[in-house]
User: Which sequence fits this backbone?
């Protein structure tokens, strides 16, 4: 029973991270109709920036400073996204979607090697942050308190994103652009600005995922490529472009994966891809997707 | 050929002369080039077969697969399994049985994937290819995991056992003979693909690509045609995988991982996916580009990424498309 409680918490922790990545991916697809293959690398970039800031730049600083520096990765990735959209993506909006997919694949190659160049080949860790929070007892076992913080951040991010999209003026503009870009443009909305902000926001979410995961696990090369595929599974199950879908999808993937690792480790990933394939087959728009 | 002329490309006679000249050059090359260069070109020709198959879907049917690593890797693993578990060394056996396996899996995957188009098709092919990747990666007691499976050229025979590689100078002999073996199959594949794309079936695929609804009104069974194209495409790429194994000497799950699918797309776009010869030229050039990038810098992925960005933004028709355009301008036709 106590093992199950820990596994439950692990699943929710994992779901929080997956949600942050997948929500960004879904947001970008929903607004701009671009499947961003570099999204996992942006997540990894966020992880590296935070790990480097906390572990190298501000090493030895008081612990509260380190906590304040945690979002550094998210902000860096958002800035990067705001630079990428006008330079690499904007010239391709009138072209077939194959080209958009290819340019994000190119971006993935460039980002992977940039991280290798900037941060080196060794894993970067930020031990002090997770150590400082210690552990809390859960049904007789100890659980890292930091993981609970990540769960809280995941829930808070979901709430903020929902409120942002459904309760603010910019959210209305975002949804209008998503539904009909030409009409939104004709009504006088600055679509270019909406696209830059949507892409930067999506990148921010990916970067935040990386920033909060890094105290719990090290930033390593290749983490982005694996994360992208899992985020794909999440959005395929939940529905591309849907926020609720990303949340439900992240929970399904996290729980299935945790259970699979416990009981049938060999086919753990294969099961996830098969679920994704089955969902695509039965309901191609995903559980919550629009046509 | 009319389509070529319409885009300002060279005339039929000139094309045939060009093809003959390239073929003679390819046959003569190992006599002058060293072992390394011969080997490099063999890799290029193998990838050309893979890209040729891939382009039947992208260029002629209008479906972008992001999971063609599955068929390449499946061919490679089939051959490696036959070496490891059955002790077979005959290349022809690899090709026959490997192709049967690849065709069966392509047929099954294709049956699922062609229900969708556009981005959903891409994601579905990607997801299915990753199922194979995880199996190769996780079932390490069968597949060797990340260590992979070795396929030594020493136990290999070509042309029904007539040619084998034992004793002194075996490696040079292998590279030399294997080059011609691959070249022969490359020519067969190219000719076959030419026939396929210029047959009524190929024309029907292009009709589906250009306008699905109209093609349907003409009575073309769209899903069945797409499925057949998928099957042929996967089989070509699978053959490339089978041919790649002895050359590489080792197969690891990397050839099933999705970035390798991306490389196949890259090759095809580099050459130009709207022309028949594009993927062939793209694959050979990509192979040189990648090999020299890897040799000259640790950050070769960055270099390839930058090339791809320039390609997509500035030269979307690829090498062949660009050459045709320049040629058309020079000769005053356009």
Assistant:
């Amino acid at each position: 029973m106590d093992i199950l409680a820990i596994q439950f918490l692990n699943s929710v922790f994992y779901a929080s991270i997956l949600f942050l990545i997948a929500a960004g991916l879904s947001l970008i697809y929903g607004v701009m109709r671009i499947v961003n293959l570099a999204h996992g690398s942006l997540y990894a970039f966020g992880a590296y920036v935070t790990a480097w800031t906390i572990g190298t730049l501000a090493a030895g600083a008081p612990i509260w400073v380190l906590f304040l520096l945690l979002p550094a990765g998210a902000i860096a990735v958002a800035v990067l996204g705001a630079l990428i959209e006008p330079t690499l993506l904007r010239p391709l909006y009138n072209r077939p979607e194959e080209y958009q997919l290819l340019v994000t694949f190119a971006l993935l190659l460039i980002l992977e090697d940039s991280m290798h160049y900037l941060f080196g080949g060794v894993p970067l860790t930020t031990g002090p942050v997770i150590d400082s929070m210690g552990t809390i007892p859960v049904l007789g076992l100890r659980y890292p308190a930091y993981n609970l913080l990540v769960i809280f951040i995941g829930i808070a991010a979901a709430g903020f994103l929902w409120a942002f999209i459904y309760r603010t003026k910019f959210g209305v503009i975002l949804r209008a652009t998503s539904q009909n870009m030409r009409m939104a443009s004709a009504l006088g909305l600055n679509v270019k600005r909406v696209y830059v902000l949507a892409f930067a926001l999506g990148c921010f979410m990916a970067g935040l995922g990386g920033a909060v995961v890094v105290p719990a696990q090290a930033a390593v090369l290749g983490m982005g490529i694996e994360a992208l595929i899992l985020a794909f599974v999440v959005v395929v199950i939940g529905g591309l472009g849907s926020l609720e879908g990303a949340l439900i999808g992240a929970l399904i993937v996290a729980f299935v994966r945790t259970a699979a690792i416990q009981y049938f480790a060999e086919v753990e990933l294969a099961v996830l891809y098969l679920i994704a394939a089955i969902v695509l087959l039965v309901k191609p728009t995903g559980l919550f997707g629009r046509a | 050929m009319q389509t070529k002329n319409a885009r300002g490309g060279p005339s039929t006679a000139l094309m045939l002369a060009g093809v003959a000249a390239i073929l003679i050059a390819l046959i003569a090359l190992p006599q002058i080039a060293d072992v390394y260069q011969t080997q490099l070109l063999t890799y290029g020709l193998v990838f050309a077969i893979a890209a040729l198959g891939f382009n039947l879907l992208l260029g002629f049917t209008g479906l972008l697969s992001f999971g063609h690593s599955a068929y390449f890797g499946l061919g490679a693993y089939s051959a490696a399994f036959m070496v490891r578990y059955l002790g077979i060394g005959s290349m022809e056996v690899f090709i026959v049985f490997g192709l049967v396996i690849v065709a069966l899996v392509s047929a099954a995957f294709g049956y699922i994937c062609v229900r969708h188009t556009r981005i959903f098709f891409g994601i579905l092919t990607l997801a299915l290819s990753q199922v194979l990747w995880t199996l190769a990666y996780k079932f390490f007691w069968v597949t060797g995991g990340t260590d992979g499976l070795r396929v030594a050229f020493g136990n290999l025979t070509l042309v029904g056992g007539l040619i084998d590689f034992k004793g002194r100078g075996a490696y040079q002999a292998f590279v030399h003979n294997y080059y011609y073996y691959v070249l022969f199959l490359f020519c067969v594949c190219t000719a076959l693909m030419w026939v396929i794309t210029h047959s009524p079936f190929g024309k029907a695929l292009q009709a589906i690509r250009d306008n699905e609804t109209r093609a349907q009104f003409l009575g073309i069974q769209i899903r069945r045609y797409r499925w057949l194209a998928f099957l042929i495409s996967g089989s070509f790429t699978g053959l490339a995988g089978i041919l790649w194994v002895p050359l590489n000497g080792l197969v690891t799950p990397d050839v099933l991982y999705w970035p390798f699918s991306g490389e196949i797309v890259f090759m095809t776009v580099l050459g130009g996916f709207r022309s028949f010869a594009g993927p062939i030229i793209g694959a050979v050039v990509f192979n040189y580009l990648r090999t020299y990038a890897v040799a000259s810098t640790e950050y070769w992925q960055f270099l390839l990424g930058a090339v791809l960005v320039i390609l997509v933004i500035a030269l979307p028709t690829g090498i062949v498309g660009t050459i045709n355009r320049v040629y058309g301008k020079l000769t005053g036709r356009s």
Notes: The two ends of chain B are 15 Å apart (CA to CA). Chain B is about 75% helix and 0% strand.
